Amino acid sequence: MANSAWSEKILALLRRMNNFYLPGSGRAACYRFEVDGAQVGWIPPDVASLLTRYPEVFSPPQGGAVSLCHGLDSYGKRSEAVDAVLQTLRQDSSLTCLRGWRDEQCDVMFSQCQCCMSRLSCCTTGLFGVKRYGVHINGYTVSDSGEVSMWLARRSPHKQTYPGLLDNVAAVKECQEEACIPAAIAEKAHPVTTVSYTYEDEEGVFAESQFVFDLELPLEFKPKVGDGEVQDFYLLPIDKVKQLLSSDDFKPNSAMVVLDFLIRHSFIEPDTEPCYQEFVAGLHQTLE
């Protein structure tokens, strides 16, 4: 049988990363965020009260929803208007997420396969509960005897988010920059699944979906620190990786991506893991 203490720690991780769905969450108090009648996110009540100061951009809460004004009928108009509001709100010390403002932008979409609604600073997505997308790579090796090991990265202590924690080896577009993985190797990464979850904290509602790739690395290859986003890399046996997943030493969503790897590659099986179904469900939640 699987170690029950380990299983409980993994379940606790999944509950934390999906706490927006749990009884007692702030979901019931949130307003739907709508654009042209379509829901694109969830707005916490404290944020909604701030947005009422800008009636030329956001319609007052009605019927459980906050909407962008109908006059903002294009990608450019919406992006410009919302950014102007957010730049003003940066002066409001109550919104902790705005203290870490970065000039990284991301698109807000009705869904992943539909057109963009507008553009937001990445650090502000939690204010609107809009879906965010990312890419994670599971870098691993297979020995001549068939033993699987996994490459993990240690994030730089200077990272603004999750400094110093363990992470996946790299993102697809950052293989060369972060891990010095040549294009000839990186292009062999293949998409395998998505990991989706929604959590809330003091900074807002975070609905995220990570596109997951597996990349078998040559036995002789060793990732190297590139742009300073990572401080070190480790090649670890699967038993050690599994042990680390239940610790506080892992970036939470990256731990979920590794957990998914272990399930897909049959290192965690339903015959020996009593929480197998809960693990799978917790990795693939859909925001409703």
Automatic annotation (TrEMBL):
Entry GO MF terms: 8-oxo-dGDP phosphatase activity
Start and end residues of each DUF4743 domain: 10-132
Coiled coil: none
Cross-referenced CDD domains: NUDIX_Tnr3_like
InterPro entries named in the record: DUF4743, NUDIX_hydrolase-like_dom_sf
Name under which the protein is recorded: Thiamin pyrophosphokinase 2
Organism: Seriola lalandi dorsalis
